[in-house]
Amino acid sequence: MTDHALRKLRENPRLAELAAFPFDFDVDRAALGHVEPVRLASGGPLTVVAGDDTGGTYFVCADGGVLHADSEGGACLIGTSVDEALEVVIGLADWGAFADLTPRDGEERILARKAEVEEEIREHYGIDDERRELLAGLGLPERSPVELVGMLHRALTRTEPDHVLLNAEELNAYRFLHDHDELPPLWEYLGLAPDASADPAAQPLTTWTRPVLVQGRTEAVRVALIRRLDALVMNQSLLRRPEAPGRLDTAPLRELAEEFEHLGDLPQALRAQRLYAALQDSPRERAAADATVVRLEERVRAAPQVPVVSGA
User: Can you say whether the dihedral through the CA atoms of 294, 305, 172, 44 is positive or negative?
Assistant: First the structure.
């Protein structure tokens, strides 16, 4: 992990002050943690290194990447290292306003966006002298807006599948902050494409999980399953039977629980199984589903604990 600039921020109060304002990367807020307990879907470690004044948090992941999570359930990778993330945060004041851009948008559009964003900022406070002083003090280069947008875009597109943030209590995933974070559907990993006779998109998600796992894409499968479970938790009408809209087809929840257990993600398996059990109408089916819940609860208690960042 590259942390040259981070060390300087921690050692130099003047640089830390500039990073906190006007660039909203406040290392003193690291001690506050995040607004709620969080963890990575992959189970990897997270370290809080800074916060912002809206309740957002900057985390460093095991591979050195910097993940930003806001206070409303959105998260994305903004740099492949702390130094790179700081270049983006400082060079693109209000970096979120640039997250929909890519280098393909061209220099003219990127410069126009920068002028628009920074003109609004300058109505309230200065950033130009502060930027030069902070970059020089941290030993970071002054890059063009096009370079910085390219760096940000590359980081954003690496958010999934390895840097997906979960609420550590509910286990739902933080949402995409930007459209180009989204992973391709699992069937595309198998080289399939939609056609009129057999559209893979029309098949259940679990059709593709095992074949994609064989390719070693564990995290892609995990994230696809979590996103699907999140959708069903939030909108159980997705389970309505087409031929009988008043009834739910709960089999997809059982299948998700089985796929998560096969994957070794026992907390998510338990989450899916609990919802499956709660939706059973028959006492016999409910009892059988509850027995599986108990079995999974025992396995979860016996399993190693995943690193969690505590909430504020």
Answer: negative
